[in-house]
Design brief:
Elements (H helix, E strand, L loop, with lengths): L1 H8 L25 H15 L15 E3 L6 H7 L6 E3 H12 L3 E5 L3 H14 L5 E6 L6 H4 L2 H17 L4 E5 L7 H6 L7 E4 H18 L1
Parallel strand pairs: 1-2, 3-4, 3-5, 5-6
Length: 218
């Protein structure tokens, strides 16, 4: 999944922006599907990331860190405890993006578990958000988004998008890093409604870049 993001984000790279990718090591869960795998993925990935947070000549210096799991993921807080540089999750970035668009918004995500977990995450991080209409799931895991036949995946995403539009959403967040680049499937389910689609990973990259630039102006 990490490798799959590189070509999707390539057009965002420019002479002042370099993206380095880091994925969970072999003991990390292959897919984050619930609370347990969230914690395990954070623990295993944090251990391998910790050396990269050091400000010394032996390590590549990074200006910011993006956690590319669409959830209220514990790794975000863990990294913030160990660096003063900006750390953001794609979940937070895309909710901020959707709020800025000023329309009712909802999330299309993977498994059923995330319907409740993401709704709770919005409340925990952002409080009561009247514009938030809810979450609809495809019933697939993050890995299945790339393992199942493309048409079956597109049908599942389109069906979930149709349900969230029926709830009143006019901005749809793609609620999994594995959905990045699948805007057409979301749009297929919108029934001709004028809907804005937020790619959470792209939103995270450009938001973090803006934060870094803003810091340099202070």
């Amino acid at each position: 999944m990490t490798r799959g993001l590189e070509p999707i984000l390539a057009d965002l790279v420019h002479p002042s922006l370099t993206l380095h990718y880091h994925t969970g090591l072999e003991h990390a869960p292959p897919s984050v599907n619930d609370h347990t795998t969230s914690i395990l993925s954070a623990a295993h990935t944090f251990a391998s990331l910790l050396p990269l947070l050091q400000d010394d000549a032996e390590h590549v210096q990074h200006d910011a860190y993006l956690v590319a799991c669409f959830s209220d993921h514990p790794l975000v807080g863990m990294l913030r405890e160990h660096t003063a540089k900006p750390v953001l999750g794609i979940f937070e970035a895309s909710v901020m993006h959707s709020l800025a668009l000023g329309q009712p918004f909802g999330i299309v995500t993977t498994g059923k578990y995330w319907e409740g977990a993401l709704a709770e995450g919005v409340r925990r991080v952002f409080g009561s958000v009247p514009a938030f209409v809810g979450v609809e799931s495809t019933g697939m895991t993050a890995l299945e988004l790339h393992a199942l036949p493309a048409e079956a995946v597109a049908e599942g995403i389109a069906a979930a998008a149709g349900r969230i539009v029926a709830k009143g959403a006019r901005t749809i967040m793609m609620g999994c890093a594995g959905m990045s680049g699948m805007e057409d499937a979301v749009r297929r389910g919108c029934g001709g409604e004028s809907v804005q689609i937020v790619d959470a990973v792209r939103s995270g990259v450009v938001t973090l870049e803006g934060l870094v630039r803003a810091q340099r102006l202070v």
